[in-house]
Amino acid sequence: MSITHDEIKKIAHLARIKITEEEADATLKKLSGILNLIEDMKKVDTTNIAPMSHAQAVTQRLREDVVTEKNQREKLQKIAPEVSKGLYIVPQVIE
Amino acid sequence: MSWEVVIGIETHVQLQTKTKIFSGASTEFGAEPNTQACLLSVAFPGTLPVLNDEVVQCAIKFGLATNAEIASRSIFARKNYFYPDLPKGYQISQYEIPIVGKGSLEIEVGDIKKRVRITRAHLEEDAGKSLHGVVKNGTGIDLNRAGTPLLEIVSEPDMSSAAEAVAYAKKLHELVRWIGICDGNMQEGSFRCDINVSVKPKGSDKLGTRREIKNLNSFKFIEQAIHYETQWQIEMLEEGKIIQQATVLFNPETAETRAMRSKEEANDYRYFPDPDLLPLEIPDEKISEIKAAMIELPHLMKARLERDYQLSPYDASGITSDKAVADYFFATLKEGAEPKQIANWILGQLFSKLNEHNLSIEDSPIKPQVLSLLLKRIQDATISNNSAKQLFEKLWMSPSLEIDALIEIEGLKQVSDSGLIEKMIDEVLKNNQAMVDEYRSGKEKAFNALVGQIMKASKGKANPGQVNDLLKKKLS
Amino acid sequence: MEDWGIKEISNLLRENKISSLEITTHYLQQIKQKNPEINAFITVDETRTLAQAKLADERIQKGEGDIFTGIPIAQTDIFCAEDWLTSCGSKMLHNFVAPYDATVVKQFNDVGAVNLGKTNMDEFAMGSSNETSYFGAVKNPWDLTRVPGGSSGGSAAAIAARMCPGATATDTGGSIRQPASLCGLTGLKPTYGLVSRYGMIAFASSLDQAGPMAKSSEDCAMMMNVMAGYDVKDSTSIDHKKEDYTKNIDQPIDGLKIGLPKEFFAEGLDHNVAKVIESAIDQYKKLGATIVDVSLPNTNLSIPVYYVLAPAEASSNLSRYDGVRFGYRTNQYDDLMDMYCKTRQEGFGDEVKRRILIGTYVLSAGYYDAYYLKAQQIRHLISEDFKKAFQVCDVIMGPTAPSTAFKANEKIDDPVTMYLQDIFTISTNLAGLPGMSIPAGSVNELPVGLQIIGNYFSEGLMLNVAHQFQKMTDWHKAVPQGLLS
Q1: pLDDT tens column, B109-138
Q2: CATH class, range A5-43
Q3: CA neighbor of C176 nearest in space, from C199, C201, C153, C200
Q4: Residue C215 · residue C476 · CB < 8 Å
Q5: Could you tell me which chain C residue has the CA closest to the CA of B87?
Q6: Residues of A in contact with C430 (CB under 8 A)
Q7: What sign does the dihedral B378-B384-B389-B391 (CA atoms) show?
Q8: Which of A25, B416, C26, C123 is found 20 to 30 A from B23 (Cα to Cα)?
């Protein structure tokens, strides 16, 4: 399986990482090497093998519906890049 | 050519819990921005989700109420996309295996009943809110809502008119409020619908391309949006144009729909099982426990009201439209009033008063005990129906007044002494010989005129039934 | 001061022979002296550290001390520690002062341990050489031209250079064990779910596990007593009965069945390293252990499986770094999209970006089944291999890393070669099993680690097995030349 220059640019955009043409080329080389390594999986027959998402076969624990969190706005927003009137500010979003 | 419209609805129901789906932050509406945005809501590095039990119980209740399959094992997945009000860069949702599977809901449009199939209902977290115009050239992000639990209920495309779609939405709205999993507050966004609309030539098997109208939070908007969208699609097709699949927004001011600025790429959400959350297993005992504790569902209660209390289907459905109304009905019934009469008064007098004052039945100044006593006074012939209506007005203004005392003060007590009534009849007959003659010559109308005279003579206090009976006897 | 371990310091503190302030001051001086060259610490805050030491001394004086009270250790920078810079080795978080404590940090605070500072690491724990940190590469105290291993290379180098007696570390594919091996230390990656992940900055959530790193097995056991435990804040934390890991550490191990997987001694393994491992196994035979051959046939597949699953999870875990609520935001941008893309371009280093891209790719439409699902299926097979092996043995042994510490810059431009560093360690992460590395010898004066893999929740046995070896040998006491002052 090979990946193309355009695909690199597409996934970089999907991942919201700016990438120049040269970077895309350099990345292409390195990713191709890694993807080749990954190709080894293809040789394995995994018919009827259940996928394993978690290290152990345990199930989700549930939390009681009780308020435990206090207002920490000031503390949490102290390290925010841009806030105003208690809101996090980003460049204008157009729908 | 004539066209057929096909409608499916995805409803986001905000679950009525104290805390968020994955954290102990409050879900109360209307707090100052970001004061309910805890570490997890803001997606601080290192924070982890822990599922709220109440959320699971709400989903199970919904599954039971729609006769749906409840998954003994369901999975939470991540839906990945970037948006400023989505702090983690992914939304935790259920994808491949939702908690609630196939179910259904019966709707009524006019006299026609129809079963709408429900494809699935899954749990997910809400996003925050983007606020425009707070700062110049910027958007403000409030994450109080981020992580609020939602149940997304997906219907099959089983509806074929705006009326059916509205009936479905209303029925669903009634149901989620009835079973107590959602406050149903549509202004606050607790119940929002995405409507998928497509049209196809009548009789065709092939579905048309659908457009999805996003985020409708009123039944009126649902109706208007579907009307506009259907018309628009038909016009396009009749002009020979092709419908593009799209997400559209409804503008309540113009009652029109328009496509959203097309996202510059097709979404690729890269769903995968959330490694921070383990499979959710629901033991059968948990389902049976919830089932045992669940209140009677509205359609079952409706049938019981018709069967046990001989209510008309119309009245029974009015009483079961809302849990609070049904509670009011049964509370009044407990006090001894007669069921049919209670239903009449709730759906008539009481509802019109509540509407006039924009009140919910829980906030009615007239409590079930008072209404019941009032109705009992009609039953035992102390007062007439008309007098009761007058009293109702008085009681609405001053609910603490004592009914029996009020009847005395207002002099509304009915005269049921037959001797007294006979005397009045004799008096009226003597003074209205012409009418008596007309009646005897076959003019039935004259009888009513005589009754009117007698009632007038009694200043409205004579028991009308007795007046009728005695007058008939006298004239025969 | 002597080259004490955690156990000795604990005894001396309890016997009032030294104070926490004295021992803490000693380590702070060591850091001041050696860190400029080694670069093992990202953040040191003497004032706060000394205040903690004073408080610990008061606790001890009042007789309220725990066995760990007053012991200075270092925290890896992957753990959020309230009011401490918590950078995770990244420019993205170069200004992130955490507003809360990770559970592990809280556990150490609660017992009165003293935090010497935050140790350097590969950016977001992605790397095997500690060369990807935004705060600069860490050097191996055994040879400053070589890497200390990664990703917890800062913790390893700090202990090896005697700047602290122990440190926390995390392991997603070998990040505790490989640096322990390359720096001559004892490191334990516990069973997945035994130590809370709350407040530990996520790399690959289904594989990440924190553990202790120290000179000896006894010291690791003492740290485990603090770190292990069920945490309601982490859904994947396991409600396992609290154990005392020091309790059975002195038990004899005769009759122990050691499984040797032939796949761990295959091509790719440096033959000198192989010799060290073989002689360590001989040592165990002398201790009464018996050797059984086992097979882990899918070992080679653990690398491709890992390099699908870990980047996939990471690509999603790292989406929260978007310049909106905390951390780095680019200075100049035209609009929201531009802000996202530049923030993430500038805020992440090359290796992190590479892994985000791989992860995004393998999860994207059309590739999920071929990559992600397939990898999860093979993960299952790998886990089954271990199950079978543990039917015939108590622990599995082999090398931790295929070679000793390699030269700085040697592999940094060749990700595939770098990834092969983890060939022997990754499979335990995939299976969720505990793994350990202990110093077992040296090649050209560079340490070699022996890996011990145990069954689920057999940390007690593993620490015991390691301790018995350390009673017979001095490898864990070896000090890099010229460093002990």
Answers
A1: 988 999 999 999 999 999 999 999 888 889
A2: mainly alpha
A3: C153
A4: yes
A5: C320
A6: 55
A7: negative
A8: C123
